[in-house]
UniProtKB/TrEMBL annotation:
InterPro entries: YjdM, YjdM_C, YjdM_N. Residues 43-110 form the Protein YjdM C-terminal domain. One of its GO terms (molecular function) is hydrolase activity. This is Phosphonoacetate hydrolase. It comes from Enterococcus asini ATCC 700915.
Length: 110
């Protein structure tokens, strides 16, 4: 019997294969184990342009920010972004707001 990989999220050894992908019964994470070299994190902006660490982007719509007195306005320029895994896949610092995480679907590449 082939050795199945541990879950990349919770490191559980109880993973199983289902229809070409691996499933972790403990945390519910599903993934495909690639036999090719990993491509890395792929993040695209609202227009489908590929984003990279260090890029500058512009916010394309007003965004409500929890704990802030006002929204992040459309047209705000963000410099030197950092890409991360997750729902909010852009980490950055915005003047007047401080450190923030943004979704790539609400920005466009400059």
């Amino acid at each position: 019997m082939a050795q199945l990989p541990n879950c990349p999220v919770c490191n559980s050894a109880y993973t199983y294969e289902d229809r070409g992908q691996f499933v972790c019964p403990e945390c519910g994470h599903e993934w495909v184990e690639s036999t090719e070299e990993e491509v890395g994190l792929v993040v695209k902006d609202a227009n489908g342009n590929l984003l990279q660490d260090g890029d500058s982007v512009t916010v394309i719509k007003d965004l409500k920010v929890k704990g802030a007195s006002g929204p992040l306005k459309q047209g705000t320029k963000v410099k030197n972004i950092r890409l991360v895994e997750g729902d909010h896949n852009i980490d950055c610092k915005i003047e007047g707001f401080g450190p923030m995480s943004l979704k790539s679907e609400f920005v466009k590449k400059n």
